[in-house]
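Progress note, sequence design subtask.
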């Protein structure tokens, strides 16, 4: 199957919309052997009737099957109703060959934010269940789920992106097509390709880029993603469609990490001291090579909380690294963290592994940012390190986390994620949103930790930390209950696949 994806056409006034360019693509769209055309939303600039009438005229000239979904711009000025009148239904699904394409509206009237509410969430789930054995599963959604590089401050990701991400991965979806950020990008998360389109005809391109469309070719064994830019440049990425095997030969064990977050140590009742003490006892028994704490060490950045933290962590056997969350830096925390916990960017390095901390927090703010300067320095350090396992750790998350409204993402998560995946970093540890989660993006396993010892936690198992075992050929992540030490597998991945 060969799919053409156009997006963010923004039909409207001459100043924003390149009409001539879009119509010049018609011939290519109709005569390049595409089985399907997808428009991933923002058909119009402001959801106005005249814009929809013109868009409808354009779609009438397309001679191949096509599916069009609305974006946030289409939902302006009561536009969603006009979308249904002029373009078609905003939600639904379509069988194509032995595959299924599900499309959902994520736009909210007069808002740039995206949301897939519970009814639509269940709709996607039901269809995926019904079509479990379909040869190809595609989901179309305007707002992006995985952060996009080169698109400026990360915003308007779906508010429930983590839950949707989890649903699409578990539903074994092959391909997710989105638009919205006007920059083409692709990431493979587990077995699912998350594809973003640039804008096909809006003047609002990013970083001096030009208009583009995507071509996605899906074969039995391989799929390719090509961005075709209107100046003739093409960029292509190829991915195998081979399924991961369930069982791997692990090879010998190289390294074991205990990964904690949001201990929120204080004299407050929300700090569960018994959970903390038991967790440390379990960690000591498990004998990890390294313990990494991804922030939220203390409840507040005050002396008495830090003094208590130092006392409680003194019972840990083995090396431990910390990176701060915003809370660790509030009040006097910005001075107390380096005094009690050592430097901001902590590091552990042997011949076999390097774990590099990246401080993403600022005092008095939950917002995370790494920034260009720190990102460049980070990769310079990592590239200088010898071959072996490369890991980074920070407080804020790089991919959306289920069971939370998306607010813990780094502002520049799209840029950092792209660089992490392209550099084939083995492991990223994060600690926001207090929900244990792990997924593989490209060759990088990204793991988020729950709160180890605070009442504010989001695992049905209760407070927990993660245990990560790195073998020559596999990487396994477990969630370990803080109080009892019982374990649950979060995932096993082939390190060479
Ligand atoms: Fe757009
Ligand atoms: Fe949009």
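Output:
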């Amino acid at each position: 199957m060969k799919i053409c994806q156009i997006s963010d056409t923004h039909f409207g006034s001459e100043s924003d919309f390149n009409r001539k360019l879009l119509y010049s693509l018609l011939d290519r769209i109709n005569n390049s052997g595409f089985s399907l055309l997808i428009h991933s939303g923002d058909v119009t600039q402001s959801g106005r009737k005249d814009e929809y009438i013109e868009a409808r005229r354009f779609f009438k000239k397309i001679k191949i099957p096509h599916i069009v979904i609305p974006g946030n711009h289409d939902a302006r000025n009561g536009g969603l109703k006009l979308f249904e009148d002029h373009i078609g239904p905003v939600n639904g699904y379509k069988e194509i060959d032995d595959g299924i394409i599900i499309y959902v509206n994520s736009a909210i009237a007069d808002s740039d934010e995206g949301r897939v509410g519970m009814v639509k969430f269940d709709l996607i789930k039901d269809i995926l269940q019904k079509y479990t054995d379909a040869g190809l599963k595609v989901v179309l959604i305007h707002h992006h789920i995985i952060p996009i590089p080169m698109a400026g401050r990360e915003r308007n990701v779906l508010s429930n992106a983590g839950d949707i991400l989890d649903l699409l991965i578990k539903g074994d979806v092959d391909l997710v097509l989105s638009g919205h950020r006007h920059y083409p990008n692709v990431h493979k998360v587990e077995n699912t390709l998350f594809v973003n389109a640039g804008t096909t005809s809006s003047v609002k391109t990013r970083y001096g880029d030009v208009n583009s469309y995507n071509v996605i070719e899906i074969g039995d064994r391989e799929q390719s993603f090509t961005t075709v830019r209107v100046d003739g440049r093409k960029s292509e990425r190829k991915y195998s469609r081979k399924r991961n095997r369930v069982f791997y030969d692990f090879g010998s064990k190289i390294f074991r990490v205990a990964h904690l977050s949001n201990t929120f140590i204080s004299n407050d009742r929300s700090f569960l001291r018994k959970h903390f003490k038991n967790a440390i006892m379990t960690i000591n028994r498990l004998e990890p090579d390294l313990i990494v704490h991804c922030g939220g060490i203390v409840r507040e950045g005050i002396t008495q909380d830090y003094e208590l933290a130092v006392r409680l962590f003194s019972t840990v056997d083995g090396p431990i690294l910390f990176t701060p969350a915003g809370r660790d830096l509030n009040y006097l925390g910005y001075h107390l963290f380096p005094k009690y916990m050592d430097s901001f960017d902590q590091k552990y390095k042997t011949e076999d592994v390097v774990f590099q901390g990246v401080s993403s927090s600022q005092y008095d703010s939950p917002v995370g940012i790494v920034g260009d300067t720190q990102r460049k320095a980070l990769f310079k350090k990592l590239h200088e390190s010898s071959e072996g396992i490369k890991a980074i750790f920070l407080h804020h998350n790089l991919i959306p986390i289920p069971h939370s409204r998306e607010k813990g993402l780094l502002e520049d998560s799209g840029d950092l994620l792209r660089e992490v995946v392209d550099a084939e970093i083995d492991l990223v540890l994060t600690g926001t949103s207090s929900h244990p989660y792990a997924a593989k993006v490209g060759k990088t396993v990204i793991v988020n930790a729950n709160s180890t010892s605070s009442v504010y936690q989001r695992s049905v198992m209760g407070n927990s930390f993660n245990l990560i075992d790195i073998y020559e050929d596999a990487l396994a992540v477990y969630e370990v209950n803080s109080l009892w030490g019982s374990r649950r597998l979060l995932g096993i991945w082939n390190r060479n696949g």
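The chain has a mean pLDDT of 94. Work on this subtask will continue into the next period as scheduled.
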